[in-house]
Write a structure and sequence with these properties.
The protein has 20 helices and six strands. By secondary structure, it is mostly helical.
Length: 478
C-alpha cells in the first residue's frame, strides 16, 4: 500500500505558527507551497501531509485524554509523578496553562492549516480537475474532523478556513453554531465528490463518501438534529451497501482491521518506517514490563457496566477484548497481572503482542485507529429514532449491536428506558475509542454529573475546557 501513510511529509510547507516573522520567511528546499501542486504526484505529497497529521505517531495527538481520562471510563494511570497535567484533567483541576490543552490545540490547528493549503492551492495544469476536486474533498473532510473535535473540547474556537497569513493570524472566536455549520458544509461538499470506495491499492486509507456521510450523521446527532441524522444514515450512507458488523468484535483491534467492512474511517499507521509512522498508543497504554507507560487505566466502574451476561451465561466478550484484567489472557499468551496497573486494568484495544511490536520499539505500532465504524452508526441511528419517538426502529438498530455481543434483547417499554439502554450500550461497545466524555457532555447535566462525580462541575450549556494560555497571549483577535 500505503501511499497515504508512507510518503514523507514536507513539513516546511505545512507548518503552522502565529509568528509573523516565520510567516514572512522564504522557504528553502526543492518544494514550496507555490510549486508543490504542479503535478498530481507532487500534489499528492501535500495531501499525504494532511493525512499524516491525523496519526498517533507522536504524543501531540492526545485526544484519548479528553475522550477517556476526562470520563468515568479511565483515570490517568502511569507513574504517580508522570504527566501530572493529565492528572489535572482527570480531576477537573484544569487551568489555561495546562500543557495537554496546548499540545492538542497546536496539533489540531497544524492539521487544519495543512488541509487549508490543499483546499486553497493554485493547482498547475498537470493536475487533472477531477483529481484536484477529490483532493480538496479529502482535505475538507479532515478539516471537518478536526473542527468537530475542537468544538467539542473548547466550544468557541477560531474558525480558520484559509491558510494562515500575516493578515489573518489574529482571529477571534466563532460561535459554536457557526463552526458546526462549516463542518456540515465541508462534509456535504466532500460527500458530493468522493467515491464510495477506491480500486487502487495505493489509495488505501483515503476518505470515502461513506466516511463523509458517517461523520455528517455524527455531527447532526451532536446537534440534536434527529431527523437529519436519520435521513443521512438511511438514505445516504446505508444505501451504499458497503458496511456491516464484523462477526468477531475482537478482530476490530488487530492488524489489518482497517479492511473490515465495519470500518468507515480509519487513521492508518505503519511500523518500521524512517521517519517513524507507527502508532504510539501501543506504548502509552502497555504495561511497564513490555516497555509501556500504563496510562489511561480503566476504572472498576467501567468493568461493572458489563454486569449483563450473554444468552449462554458468559461475560460480554467486548469486556475482555477492550481491557486486560486479572486472571484473563493478555496479548502474549500470558495472563494479565493486576499489579501492572494502578486500577488493576489496562487498555487492550490499542495494544499489540510483543511478537508484532517488541518492547524496545513499543511506540512503533501498526494498528489503525478506527474513528468511525458501523456499530457507532447503528447506535446513532437507534438514539436518533428514540428521540424522534420511533421506538420500533430504534430497537431494530440496537438489537443488531447486542446480537453481535450475544446479549438477549427485550425492547424497552418507553423512551426513557430506551435512552438508558442506548447510553449503556454506547459505553460498552465504544469503550476506549475516545468518545465517552463527549457523549456524556451531549447527554446533559444529569447524566454527566452522575457519571463524573463530585470533582466535576457542570457549566452551561455544557463543560468546555479552557483555551490554552499560549493562544490567549499570542492571538490578539481573542
Amino acid at each position: 500500500m500505503k501511499k497515504i501513510v508512507t510518503i514523507l511529509t514536507i513539513l516546511g510547507i505545512f507548518s503552522f505558527s502565529s509568528c509573523n516573522d516565520f510567516l514572512n520567511e522564504e522557504l528553502d528546499g526543492e518544494y514550496t507551497s507555490n510549486n508543490i501542486y504542479n503535478t498530481e504526484e507532487e500534489a499528492n505529497l501535500a495531501l499525504t501531509g494532511v493525512y499524516n497529521s491525523l496519526s498517533f505517531t507522536t504524543s501531540s495527538n492526545m485526544i484519548w485524554v479528553f475522550g477517556d481520562v476526562a470520563s468515568d471510563d479511565a483515570v490517568k494511570g502511569g507513574s504517580a509523578s508522570d504527566q501530572a497535567e493529565i492528572g489535572m484533567i482527570d480531576e477537573f483541576n484544569i487551568k489555561s496553562d495546562n500543557g495537554i490543552l496546548l499540545s492538542y490545540w497546536k496539533f489540531a490547528y497544524e492539521g487544519i492549516n495543512r488541509a487549508n493549503n490543499v483546499i486553497h492551492a493554485n493547482y498547475g495544469a498537470g493536475v487533472d480537475d477531477g483529481v484536484k476536486q477529490q483532493m480538496i474533498a479529502q482535505a475538507k473532510f479532515i478539516r471537518a474532523y478536526y473542527y468537530f473535535n475542537l468544538v467539542n473540547i473548547w466550544g468557541k474556537v477560531p474558525l480558520r478556513i484559509e491558510p494562515v497569513r500575516t493578515s489573518n493570524v489574529n482571529m477571534g472566536l466563532s460561535e459554536v453554531a457557526q463552526i458546526y455549520s462549516r463542518i456540515e458544509q465541508d462534509l456535504n461538499d466532500a460527500a458530493g465528490v468522493l467515491p464510495p470506495a477506491y480500486t487502487q491499492t495505493a489509495d488505501k486509507g483515503r476518505v470515502t463518501r461513506g466516511a463523509a456521510y458517517g461523520l455528517l450523521a455524527k455531527v447532526q446527532l451532536y446537534q440534536k438534529k434527529w431527523d437529519d441524522c436519520i435521513t443521512t444514515i438511511t438514505t445516504k450512507l446505508e444505501p451504499l451497501g458497503l458496511y456491516g458488523l464484523e462477526t468477531n468484535y475482537e478482530d476490530l483491534f488487530k492488524l489489518g482491521a482497517e479492511d473490515s467492512r465495519e470500518a468507515i474511517f480509519s487513521i492508518l499507521h505503519e511500523s518500521n518506517q524512517n521517519p517513524g509512522l507507527g502508532n504510539s498508543l501501543n506504548q502509552w497504554f502497555a504495561p511497564l514490563v513490555e516497555g509501556g507507560y500504563y496510562f489511561n487505566a480503566p476504572t472498576n466502574n467501567y468493568v461493572l457496566s458489563f454486569s449483563e451476561q450473554t444468552t449462554t451465561g458468559q461475560t460480554d466478550p467486548r469486556l475482555d477484548a477492550s481491557i486486560g484484567r486479572s486472571g484473563k489472557e493478555w496479548l502474549n499468551d500470558d495472563v494479565f497481572d493486576l499489579t501492572w496497573s494502578i486500577t488493576g486494568y489496562l487498555v487492550k484495544k490499542h495494544n499489540q503482542p510483543l511478537a508484532e511490536v517488541p518492547a524496545g520499539t513499543k511506540g512503533d505500532g501498526g494498528l489503525p485507529y478506527i474513528y468511525l465504524r458501523y456499530a457507532d452508526i447503528l447506535l446513532m441511528k437507534a438514539e436518533a429514532y428514540t428521540e424522534a419517538n420511533d421506538l420500533d426502529k430504534a430497537a431494530a438498530a440496537l438489537k443488531l449491536v447486542r446480537d453481535r455481543a450475544g446479549l438477549a434483547y427485550t425492547k424497552p417499554v418507553n423512551q426513557e428506558q430506551m435512552r438508558s439502554v442506548i447510553y449503556l450500550e454506547r459505553r460498552r461497545e465504544l469503550g476506549f475509542e475516545f468518545h465517552r466524555f463527549f457523549d456524556l457532555m451531549r447527554w446533559g447535566k444529569d447524566v454527566a454529573t452522575q457519571a463524573l462525580g463530585s470533582d466535576f462541575k457542570w457549566q452551561e450549556p455544557r463543560y468546555y475546557f479552557p483555551i490554552p494560555q499560549n493562544e490567549l497571549d499570542s492571538n490578539n483577535g481573542i
